[in-house]
Amino acid sequence: MPSDLGVIWLTFKLATLTTLILLLVGTPIAWWLARTKSKWKGPIGAVVALPIVLPPTVLGFYLLLLMGPNGPVGQLTQWLGIGLLPFTFGGLVIASVFYSMPFVVQPIQNAFEAMGERPLEVAATLRASPLEAFFTVAVPLARPGFLTAAILGFAHTVGEFGVVLMIGGNIPDKTRVLSVQIYDHVEALEYAQAHWLSAGMILFSFVVLLALYRLGRTERRP
What we know:
Order of helices and strands: HHHHHHHHHHH
CATH superfamily: MetI-like
Number of domains: 1
Strand content: under 5%
Number of strands: 0
Helix content: over 70%
Largest sheet: none
């Protein structure tokens, strides 16, 4: 049981950090995708959405190659004195950011698109700079999208398995997250512990879906 609590804490820390990074990185990407008329919108949007349809092990495999000793990212991190990222918590965070990106970018993009042009045009007539209009008009109007993105990003990171196993392995207190711990319990025929963690995941998933449902009803309320 103490090891299970440690795994839950590590998973919570990973999901929280991943969600915060994705909100910072994903917001400008979502804004660009919502506003641009560039021919690159389709390809870049498809790249962002790839983890939705791509098997997690495929994404994990290529991230492993990129961050490995012979990959460009791995060579850069070694040159910077950071060392290799695979099988570290830092590597898990990077992999989780890529894996959960569409679940954060797309809700924010949809919220920006639903906002329309009118609020920004009004802000411009009041001599607000584009940056001021973004933070004082666009972000508050897109608040439901940000809430949905945060919930989905956190929940998706908590539930990931293939990517974290490929990049993080199964190192106690370092990279062993909740989904991997359940797998370990089942392999060891420790069904009581697997039931305890799995039931917790079911309850967590239900709460997430309920929160999204209530958020959707709030958005539709006049």
